Amino acid sequence: MWPQVRAALVLAAAVFLLVMGFPGLDFFQSDPKRASTPVRKQLVALDVALRRPLVEPLEPVERFLGMNQRWHFYTTGASRTRRLELRVDGEVWHRSNHPEHRFRAAQLANPRLRHHTKNWVRGKSGSVTHALMAWAIAEVLTEKPDAQHVEMRGLEGRWPGRKLRIVRSAEASAPDWTVRRTKR
Amino acid sequence: MSSWWQRWVDHVGRPIDTRILASVRIGMAGIMALDMLWTWWLGLVPWLYVPGPDSLARPHRLWLLTDLGPEAVHMAFWGAVVSYLFVAAGLFTRPAIVVGILCEAQIGMANTLAEQGVDHICRTMLLILLFSGSDGRWSLGPAQRRDTVPGWPVDLMAWLLVLIYTASGVCKPLRDWSAWLDPSALPATYRIMADPLSGVVDPVLGHQLLPLMHAMDWATLVFEIGAVMLLTRYARWWAVMGVVMHLGLAATMKLGQFPYVILAMYPIWFAEPALRWWDARRARATGS
């Protein structure tokens, strides 16, 4: 009896994974603009009618366990070249993927922090400016306790990025280190 | 009973070498623990996960540790690290998997933007391993030694990877078909690998290699959209493409644990012949 039950459970698990992560369907729904053609609209309508009623009750459980089954990795690359720059007292200490200006490069390249910096440079997440600056100031002061001025810049340009312009910036000065957003 | 059902019952219950699953358990949990230790070593844990005015943490509504104060974050973090080390060592594997998943999921709730897709993949894989008997070999105990276990966990893991690859492959041209398929457009691989915020390829240097980047775009699409091949008898050949792709990602991008932890799942395709060769070599050496 157990082999039959086990086979049924494995089949149920495979169907569960398929339903929760059916290729493409969540991708259309995550942005209405993606369901732009009649075929895509039809697919979304079918999904809403058939799959979503099964998926929605399970989503809180999925989320609580940190096991979301929506997969669309690297659907496209960056539309423009973007870099983050940290300047201390007017001198460049860090520049994204730069061979020389590598202050805290390991931290800023860490994927868990990088999404915040990336969104900040893209102007998608201005609310993290204060937290990113607080982190940068703390790191700078461990290296140079008498630092007077810290500036964080977001640079952007057309590929391959020979010329970049400042699209975002924030700065803070000693002694109070109050963060000012100088370019939003 | 129909013959297809009996074939399915026989298939999921077929005995496989326990060491195949043990190698996945050790590799995956070990890399997950190391990745968390690396985040701690870099001093990022308080900035990323402890809620506060200067923190990047933005707790989700399912974040349950609010009332326990900032120390709860550190407890959950270290709970996950120690649990994953236990899982890798095969020490109280099943309770360690449960504790590890719950603690790490809570850490993820503190800062959903610091979560990566690979974290969700790993936790799903660990849930499969929870029921698998992967601690029957290469473990410190107290699980009993088992030389073979039923093969269904390998099937579910392969199925999950096929779904992930297929979804990624299908969504790429749906999002921006020209970046992936049009030879006159700037290739997506270039825009990914040469992005200074996440890649390590110099954008100016990489711009001189665009034909190669186009070839990599197409190879990626072929591998991902054709990932169903990983469920056929050609799986090992297809998996070689996967190994090349993930090694390429590891070399050209700053992705943390992603390429390594996915490669740690590949023993489901490669461990069996490797173990057979190893056993034969040992048998010859000992003369048994």
Question: What are the main properties of this structure?
Answer:
heterodimer, A: 184 residues, five-stranded antiparallel beta sheet, 7 helices, B: 288 residues, mainly alpha, two-stranded antiparallel ribbon, 13 helices, 2 strands
Radius of gyration of chain B: 21 Å
Mean pLDDT of chain B: 94
- Overall structural class of chain B, as computed from helix and strand content, comes to mainly alpha
Q: How many strands, which pairing sense, and closed or not: the largest β-sheet of chain A? A: 5 strands, antiparallel
User: Which protein chains are joined by the largest interface, and how many residues does each one contribute?
Assistant: A-B, 67 and 79 residues
Oligomerization category of the chains in this entry: heterodimer
Polypeptide structure, described:
- The complex is a heterodimer of chains A (184) and B (288).
- In chain A, strands 2-1-3-4-5 form a five-stranded antiparallel β-sheet, covered by helices on one side.
- Chain A is elongated, with a radius of gyration of 23 Å.
- The termini of chain A are far apart.
- With 184 residues, chain A is α+β, with helices and mostly antiparallel strands.
- Chain A is 43% helix and 19% strand.
- Chain A has helices spanning 2-20, 25-29, 38-55, 59-64, 105-109, 111-121, 129-143; strands at 81-88, 91-95, 149-157, 165-173, 180-183.
- With 288 residues, chain B is mainly alpha-helical.
- Chain B is built from 13 helices and two strands.
- Chain B has helices at residues 3-12, 18-41, 45-49, 70-89, 93-110, 117-130, 152-181, 188-193, 203-206, 210-225, 235-252, 258-263, 267-286; strands spanning 15-17, 148-150.
- Chain B has a two-stranded antiparallel ribbon.
- In chain B, helix 2 runs antiparallel to helix 4, helix 4 packs antiparallel against helix 5 and helix 6 (117-130) runs antiparallel to helix 7.
- Chain B is globular, with a radius of gyration of 21 Å.
